[in-house]
Design brief:
With 403 residues, the protein is mainly β. Helices cover 3% and strands 35% of the residues. Strands 3, 6, 9, 12, 13, 16, 17, 20, 23, 26, 29, 32 and 35 form a 13-stranded parallel beta sheet that branches. It has a 12-stranded parallel beta sheet with strand order 1-4-7-10-14-18-21-24-27-30-33-36, covered by helices on one side.
Length: 403
């Protein structure tokens, strides 16, 4: 338990002569009894001050460790907020604040570049004003990120990605204990918001980008489940881009540009399921292309209102059914408050709108949570979009933590 105060500098604000930040090296808790490093309940957060010589929180050769309730101020030093320095698994980062990490786009709040990681939980962190919010994996595909849980974070006002999980090449080596069977990385109930601080031109990046899994061998059947998230604005790129295997359901998306693009990036567009999302956007709604032969990409039960094209699907595996589409002006007629700012934005259907035939869900889909709407309430599948009740009084989409 860390006392409140500033770590890494002395009372005069000068760097101490000790290694800065929080090195978590060679620490191994147990699943039932993890090692917990935390601030004191009810006290100001301990402030870890960044330095140009080191990433601030550093993980190596550690497992079953929780880092909770801290604040990282990168001091615009060009180093990362939290990063791996060696293989790790079952690391939890929760209830932390990351700021002062915006020197350039390659400065990252939380990164696992360079090492295999599995069983990570990234929960209820506030990541603002970074070059990139969270970057999991490596640009060359050599750093598997496996079986993670990313939930209830606020990632906003970044230059590049709010979150990217990189594609993976064949696993050259499998560390002891890393799952080799099918796993799912869950990304749920987060806020991914960009603003005028976003990069443009060749540096523009989506709010969330998901890469493909290994083409064969261990990890080839892995995938993502993305649900209950709020995506808000991106002045120069799409809100969501993906390849691989992805279930994307019950999300809210609002932007002046493009919303969803499913396309090849470094791998293949494999099995995709886009269901019960509500989208209001100024340009294209859902664009799907390049599906791998013999695999299916389903788009069903969505409510998509777009300034250009609500749905643009191509490829022999693309299947579209039971969606409601329209213009942005039609969104004003069918949704409660679709053009209001966050905090007042209301993408619920008006009474009598967004109705169609009931969609029957499979047992697998019900097991994966498809029967619950954006607010976690039972979804009447006659309703299209992310809300399954007309008068749901749940969370109002805002640039703040979703309960």
């Amino acid at each position: 338990m860390l006392a409140p105060g500033r770590y890494g500098i002395d009372a005069r604000g000068r760097d101490t002569d000790r290694p800065p930040g929080l090195p978590v090296f060679d620490l191994h808790g147990r699943a039932e009894a993890p090692i917990v490093i935390t601030g004191q309940p009810g006290a100001p957060r301990p402030l870890l001050v960044g330095r140009a010589t080191h990433n601030t929180i550093r993980f190596a050769r550690s497992s079953h460790v929780v880092v909770r309730g801290l604040e990282v101020f990168g001091r615009f030093s060009g180093t990362f907020g939290a990063a791996t320095s060696g293989p790790t698994h079952h690391i939890t980062l929760e209830d932390n604040v990351f700021r002062g990490l915006s020197t350039h786009q390659q400065v990252v709040g939380i990164s696992t570049t360079g090492h295999p990681t599995w069983g990570w939980v990234i929960r209820r962190n506030h990541i603002a004003g970074c070059g990139t919010g969270i970057y999991l994996g490596n640009s060359n595909g050599d750093s598997p990120f496996v079986g993670g849980l990313i939930e209830h974070n606020v990632i906003r006002d970044v230059r590049g990605y709010c979150l990217q999980v990189k594609h993976q090449g064949p696993w050259a080596q499998v560390p002891a204990g890393m799952p080799t069977g099918a796993t799912t990385t869950v990304i749920r109930h987060n806020v991914f918001a960009k603003s005028a601080s976003s990069s443009t031109g060749p540096d523009a990046r989506p709010n969330l980008l998901l890469g493909d899994q290994p083409p064969d061998g261990p990890g080839a059947e892995n995938g993502f489940a993305v649900y209950g998230n709020f995506f808000h604005e991106n002045p120069s790129e799409s809100l969501f881009q993906a390849e691989g295997r992805v279930d994307f359901h019950h999300n809210l998306l609002f932007c002046s540009g493009q919303a969803v693009r499913l396309q090849r990036h470094n791998g293949l567009v494999r099995e995709m399921n886009l269901a019960f999302n509500t989208i209001v956007c100024g340009e294209d709604g859902i664009t799907l292309s390049g599906g791998a032969p013999g695999l299916r990409q389903r788009v069903m039960g969505n409510a998509v209102f777009a300034g250009v094209s609500p749905l643009s699907l191509s490829g022999e595996g693309a299947v579209e059914s039971n969606n409601i589409t329209g213009t942005v002006n039609q969104a004003l007629q069918q949704l409660m408050g679709p053009l209001a700012p966050p905090g007042r934005l209301d993408l619920r259907p008006r009474p009598g709108e967004l109705l169609g035939p009931r969609i029957e869900l499979s047992s697998r889909e019900l097991d994966q949570g498809w029967g619950l709407d954006f607010d976690g309430r039972p979804h009447d599948t006659r309703l299209r979009g992310a809300y399954g009740r007309i008068f749901s009084a749940g969370w109002t989409p805002a640039l703040d933590f979703k309960p």
